[in-house]
Amino acid sequence: MSDYGVKIAQPGYSITTSDPRNLVFSSAFRTLNVALTGTLQQTQNGGSYTFSVSHGLSFTPFALVFHKTSAYPNQWVVSPVNGLSTANLNGDQTEITSGDIRMSSTQLQVIARFANGSSETITLRYYIFNISV
Amino acid sequence: MILFYDKKNGDIIGTVEGRVHDARQLGAWIGDKEKVGRIVCQWMPVMVVVDVVDSKGTVHSINASWDEWQAWLEDEEKKPGSDRRKYKIQKTVWEPSVNQKELFVAFDAQPTQVYEYRVNVPSLQLVLKSG
Question: How many CB atoms lie within 10 A of CB A133?
Fold first, then answer.
């Protein structure tokens, strides 16, 4: 069988001889293409809230989630952060705790917990990829 | 963009981003289907700028609406000797296909701006949150 496919090399590298790490794209390898991306938001004073995204894929996909809170509106933090949310490290009470991001073959779920006292907003950015975990 | 809102109070709870959504993306949902509604904003091509090469080899740049371009293309491809190499799309202009286009253009550039709005549930119009 012939060796065929599509390759794109970085500027300055040969398509035919360069190592795969110097390619921008090669159809020989799987890529992390995004099936769904978007944002989620909830404002709340105390208690918890479960975000859910029914992704409609037929497998359990790999996902990345970032979050930011109203107290630190310019910091996107990767979620979860091993049980210590960066929001907490910053002195903000709102948190997303480790293990509270769950992916199944139907849904991405993220559980956010809010401190009592004042209303806070948490915004999430999610990426769901076309690759199975 | 597909925008999901709480049917009770119109609060926007999440989005799926993108300009053109296929069946798979349209199958996605945020939150509880019973309690959450959605507004789907598909973008459509509305205008093209096409370079066309005439029989003498001269290139003409044509601005046309998308519908005009499609009709022209259909006619052109019926002609004997039709050759796709004679025309090249230089630019396609896309627009949201819903009311309040300007808002969806803004959300396309700055997606979290959507949360400055809520949905007026009866009319499904986006209104700026007060305060």
Answer: 11
Between CA B40 and CA B1 the distance in angstroms is 6
> Is residue B131 within 8 angstroms of chain A, CB to CB?
no
Give the pLDDT confidence of B61-77 residue by residue, as tens digits: 989 999 999 998 888 88
Instruction: Enter the ipTM.
Output: 0.81
Q: What pLDDT score does A2 carry?
A: 65
Q: How far is B75 from chain A (nearest CA, A)?
A: 35
What dihedral angle (degrees, nearest 10) is formed by the CA atoms of B29, B30, B32, B37?
A: -80
pTM confidence score: 0.83
Size of interface A-B (CB pairs under 8 A): 58
Res. B120: pLDDT tops 60: yes
CB of B113 within 8 Å of a chain A CB? The answer is no
Query: Does B13 contact A at CB distance below 8 Å?
Result: yes
**If phi over 0 gives left and psi between -120 and 50 gives alpha, with beta otherwise, what is residue A83?**
left
Q: Are B1 and B114 in contact (CB under 8 A)?
A: yes
* Burial of residue A106 (number of CB atoms within 10 Å: 0-12, 13-18, 19+): middle
